[in-house]
Design brief:
By secondary structure, this protein is α/β, with parallel strands linked by helices. About 30% of the residues lie in helices and about 20% in strands. Strands 1-8-7-6-5-4-3-2 form an eight-stranded parallel sheet. It starts with 5 loop residues before the first strand and ends with a helix. The chain binds ribulose-5-phosphate (5RP) and fe (ii) ion.
């Protein structure tokens, strides 16, 4: 029997002028986590939001805030995001020359650490820190923008990560980018158990139907 799958809508595709209502709509629709994409214009070409927005979200939701840092030198901001109310902080291995130290810094704040892999990054890059993290985020698009097409080969990393994680049944493997009812089954079959979806959820008026269609697509896997 496969592990239960959690849905983490990405607010990247939400209406930022109505963020509280947008979060409430996906909460009512059954979202498990709220995925927050932080971009700095350096590590990725786009710029989004920072700790003040996370602090504002913290005041309007009890759902776990899953903060995905797509920023250069993330060590500078870990404490700020932790203080703002993040439940999880995920850093990119490509942005962390001292990855183990960065993971320890996240853990020291009381926040659950995660590591993310770009599509071109081999899974071996996180092999020796798997026991130190709570989550591995496998990017299924190149980071920086919502609404891009899913890259199918990226999910081939997931069975390797699961194998290396051994009996770490609690390790979350999250996929992020281009997830919709047609691609979610590929990720879940490979072993993903957290699905981030931005445009496939916030791009539709009926959020319950949007989440429901993804869950229905994976129901029999
Ligand atoms: O990290 C991200 C982009 O870098 C986003 O979380 C991701 O792209 C979600 O958007 P979509 O589901 O529309 O692809
Ligand atoms: Fe993301």
């Amino acid at each position: 029997m496969r592990r239960s799958v959690m849905m983490a809508p990405s607010i990247l595709s939400a209406d930022f002028a109505r963020l509280a209502e947008e979060v409430e709509s996906v909460t009512q629709a059954g979202a498990n986590w709220i995925h927050v994409d932080v971009m700095d214009g350096q590590f990725v070409p786009n710029i989004t939001i920072g700790p003040p927005v996370v602090a504002s979200l913290r005041r309007v939701t009890d759902l776990p805030l899953d903060v995905h840092l797509m920023i250069a030198n993330p060590d500078r901001y870990i404490e700020d995001f932790a203080r703002a109310g993040a439940d999880r902080i995920t850093v990119h291995v490509e942005a962390c020359p001292h990855l183990h130290r960065t993971i320890q810094s996240i853990r020291a704040t009381g926040v659950k650490p995660g590591v993310a892999l770009n599509p071109a990054t081999p899974p071996e890059m996180v092999r020796w820190v798997l026991e130190d993290v709570e989550l591995v985020l496998v990017m299924t698009v190149n980071p920086g923008f919502g609404g891009q097409a899913f890259l199918p080969r990226t999910v081939e990393k997931i069975p390797l990560l699961r194998e290396w994680a051994g009996d770490r049944d609690d390790l979350c493997v999250e996929v992020d980018g281009g997830i919709d009812p047609s691609t979610a089954p590929k990720a879940v079959k490979a072993g993903a158990d957290v699905l981030v979806a931005g445009s496939a959820v916030f791009g539709r008026a009926d959020r319950k139907k949007a989440l429901g269609d993804i869950l229905e697509a994976i129901a029999h896997i």
